[in-house]
Amino acid sequence: MEARASTNAKSVLDAVVHHGEMIDLSHALDAGMPVYPQHAPYTLSLHRRHGDPHAKPRIADSSFANEIIVMSAHTSTHIDALGHFSRCGHVHGGEPASDIETAKGLARLDVTDIGPIWRPATLFDIAGWRGVDALRPGEEITAADFEGCAARNALDLRPGDIALVRTGWARHWRDSSLFNGSQGGLPGPGRDGAQWLIDRGVSMVGSDTPAFEVIPSVGDSVHAMLLVDKAIHIIENLNLESLAEREARRFLFVGLPLRMVGATGSPLRPIAVL
Amino acid sequence: MEARASTNAKSVLDAVVHHGEMIDLSHALDAGMPVYPQHAPYTLSLHRRHGDPHAKPRIADSSFANEIIVMSAHTSTHIDALGHFSRCGHVHGGEPASDIETAKGLARLDVTDIGPIWRPATLFDIAGWRGVDALRPGEEITAADFEGCAARNALDLRPGDIALVRTGWARHWRDSSLFNGSQGGLPGPGRDGAQWLIDRGVSMVGSDTPAFEVIPSVGDSVHAMLLVDKAIHIIENLNLESLAEREARRFLFVGLPLRMVGATGSPLRPIAVL
Amino acid sequence: MEARASTNAKSVLDAVVHHGEMIDLSHALDAGMPVYPQHAPYTLSLHRRHGDPHAKPRIADSSFANEIIVMSAHTSTHIDALGHFSRCGHVHGGEPASDIETAKGLARLDVTDIGPIWRPATLFDIAGWRGVDALRPGEEITAADFEGCAARNALDLRPGDIALVRTGWARHWRDSSLFNGSQGGLPGPGRDGAQWLIDRGVSMVGSDTPAFEVIPSVGDSVHAMLLVDKAIHIIENLNLESLAEREARRFLFVGLPLRMVGATGSPLRPIAVL
Amino acid sequence: MEARASTNAKSVLDAVVHHGEMIDLSHALDAGMPVYPQHAPYTLSLHRRHGDPHAKPRIADSSFANEIIVMSAHTSTHIDALGHFSRCGHVHGGEPASDIETAKGLARLDVTDIGPIWRPATLFDIAGWRGVDALRPGEEITAADFEGCAARNALDLRPGDIALVRTGWARHWRDSSLFNGSQGGLPGPGRDGAQWLIDRGVSMVGSDTPAFEVIPSVGDSVHAMLLVDKAIHIIENLNLESLAEREARRFLFVGLPLRMVGATGSPLRPIAVL
Asked: Nearest-CA residue of chain C relative to A65?
């Protein structure tokens, strides 16, 4: 599923990076962020504090603090592993989903399949193209939208690239109800738009919503089309506002998913290098 | 504390990368890995499985799985935030440690201070230089060791660089007791070796042990010297074996810490680009 | 603080129990229950399921399932330990609160101080006395209310007894916002009512709200009056509806707090024996 | 499965209680206790401490502390729900185990089926009968042992009673490896001994080991015989030392499992009333 050995980081960078500016594409993780109700709630709590007694005296009267974190892998900006999704009870490759589920997480198709991500990416700023701050809840992005946006901006999406789709949704990050789609759904591609991306040979996709696809779904489950049918990973809850302000088009995308054995995804702090 | 705005990713890469090979410097996270007893134990458990009933019918008979993860930020390969450590009750900058501790984690000096890491790094393969698979528990790395290793390998460590120190400890990853130092301590720099690194102006340091410094400590708390006195971040539990096999010397180090508000550190999946 | 060694379970029961009916005074714990925003959210997730592979073959082709639970001690029906509360930075007995806080929880005044609870209790059905289903948010229960309710129902509250106060709030259990006091506060005693209970020598108090006291507080912190000043434990989120329907007045109260070392309280499933 | 509505607490107590002494049958919960490796590790950490900033000023300069707890239901002294166990993939009643497993825990046969426990119990002090401090790892308790112990002590076990079996294992509580059976197994009944208890019509059983049954199992899975075949609940990790010192034979057993919806068991703090 991966051909990382052949990735040459320098030539990829040279091919798409112009001046070398780094843009952070992540949201922070905190107690007030929107978490999908089906995922475990996020908690971070200090476990040991500096003043806590130590078992024995410490050199230089030093101390340390640490924390306990409870979370789902699908927290804040994150990537979906292939085994996160199934269609008709089967995961990518055709295996019954229940066959890969264990007390230690997914036995296969977990997030450790995803190597370091270092690829060219193209930004489809659909909100910008439509001249709005953000798409509306439930607003579909069609193949025609992708075509139109690509033509207007002379976008150059090549096989193996990552396609990032901006709906403007990052502006709603502090409004959990709206961000999570509880006020009429989420904007994003339906079957038609997703097929357009698949036909261009993208290796991964990402957007600034928690679902990537339009909710309610249109025509098919886009998650199933991508993860199950085509092994195309999905990155969600990206913050694409700075990229759009800079009118970025094609650039280097770098993301380093945690290698959590058995996990159905990983929080991610991706960057773009322009 | 950071001057990331001025980092030019392309010029940094051009300065140190030769052929462009990417090397993963992380260990995976799983239930069997060594976790320091003072940190919260790590658990990953599937929360929703594919066959679980959904609240309403789903398009394409699709389903998703997710997990609940419990962990400390200091799990597997990770980076320490400045507020992780104190000397005589004070954190970097002189504030009492208790002043920054809250029910939401650290109010300041947390891991969100650390931007994307994209810097030249130099490998001090101390184990290789000594001709051993791994240093012994409690074995100190002195300034003379750093000098000798640098001279032998013609190492070029410049101000602002990251210094990575290989002890060979990654070979003990599957032996928690030994790895955690319960069998006589850990190898690493004492005050003398740490001062040598500080004098060279390193911006960050890292090693393949869970403490970076020699345990039992020698001369001073190296954590306090680095984090508290000098605001130099520490990366621990690196896997430096592949780097050493390739005889890597100076290269690009890329790490993207999660922006967990209040956290005293973050798990990290760093890469080297050679 | 405790003198339970002298409690004779049989004579206590004989003194207050008439026919022997047991009434459950607890709410269940589930994902939809109201949890105070300052407490950690509650999550229960199956960890191992029956079909998960076992490390080795098992006799009789048997299997087991278990779960991972994340919670605060102050979840659903629960009891507060003395160290849960402080006044002006000091806990019961005068010690600075920070002196008993450690990485393992409270070093003293934790919930393990509370032995098995087996005591006479008296129900003050304030809602019934006022002829309402439930008191209003922020409605104070005064000494005069306790006097009036006691007189009307010929209540017999003796030193060492537990006083249970019914506001009717258990009816709001499925409305988290209202139950937690986000719609104008909570009904309960202010300083005046609390002092009346203290003057009668109660050993513990309980009510059907998450705070026992009126919120916003009136006159003083009733928690501080009880836990800090007088070492009187507080039981919260009781379900007193069945007791009220039976017009119970004095009865045996049995509660068995978990002996969680360091905890500031414990979930509780108390019963009344009539 | 439940017929507790008809339980008359007073008459049950009157039938078996002599002087009224209460004995605590639980172990405490702390970070050092033995936890079976297949269960989630236990962590308790203070979440909010007294000195932490509050969102707004508080009356009487008061403050509270709370904690975050991570655990399995099968922690320290606890009771198993029926759905905890399966035989050949089926739970009690014949349903496939997978049919009751959901993202919210067990849909049926969870711990909320267990009402307040208030029943006569009989202590089989097998260690005392054999004249040893504790049975050996893997030592089986047979029907003949139960017969012999009952005869010697004139035990009066009646249908509906709880049978408690003392192996002396509570003395190993601070030796996790031995306590968990990692040094040759655990003492307890095999098929033969379990059948003897079943034939006497016990409603529940309990012992001072983490498995109740002999490990390695002998003849059949005793858990399956009890939980799956007969709906007899199992209480584990009891501390029966004080009971044995008092030579208690028949007494009142009171246990109040938490009503955690979906849980496969509950921690328990049971008492005996003599």
From this structure: C103
